[in-house]
Design goal:
This protein has 115 residues and is mainly β. The chain contains no helices and eleven strands. The strands form two sheets. Strands 2, 4, 5, 6, 9, 10 and 11 form a seven-stranded mixed beta sheet that branches. Strands 1-3-8-7 form a four-stranded antiparallel beta sheet, with no helix packed on it.
C-alpha cells in the first residue's frame, strides 16, 4: 500500500510564499511521474505541476513562473515551492504518484491565500 503524506499548507497573505512537501512510503527512484493537483471550493481538481524521473517538469499556465516542483529521490519526497501567491491559489493541494491506470493520492493539505 503506497502512502503519501503532505505537509506545509497554511494561511498566507497575497504575495507570500509556502513550500509543500510530500513524503512517499516507497522508493520513488523508479516512479515515472509525481506532482501536485489542487481543488478550489466548488471547482474540479486541476493539475498544478508534474515532475518525471528525469526531473523534467511541467506546469499549469496559471502557476508558471511562480511555482517550482522538485523531487528528492533520496528522501522519497516531492516538493512544491509556491511564490507570489494569489487568492485564486486557495484550495486543497494533493500530491500524487504514478499514472493511469494506477494513481496514488495524498490526503491533501489546505492552502489559503488572503487578499
Amino acid at each position: 500500500q503506497v502512502q503519501l503524506v503532505e505537509s506545509g499548507g497554511g494561511l498566507v497573505q497575497a504575495g507570500g510564499s509556502l513550500r509543500l512537501s510530500c513524503a512517499a512510503s516507497i522508493n520513488i527512484n523508479s516512479v515515472a511521474t509525481m506532482g501536485w493537483y489542487r481543488q478550489a471550493p466548488g471547482k474540479q481538481r486541476e493539475l498544478v505541476a508534474t515532475i518525471t524521473r528525469s526531473a523534467s517538469t511541467d506546469y499549469a499556465d496559471s502557476v508558471k513562473g511562480r511555482f517550482t516542483v522538485s523531487r528528492d529521490n533520496a528522501k522519497n519526497s516531492v516538493y512544491l515551492q509556491m511564490n507570489s501567491l494569489k487568492p485564486e491559489d486557495t484550495g486543497v493541494y494533493y500530491c500524487f504518484l504514478g499514472g493511469p491506470p494506477q494513481i496514488y493520492w495524498g490526503q491533501g493539505t489546505q492552502v489559503t491565500v488572503s487578499s
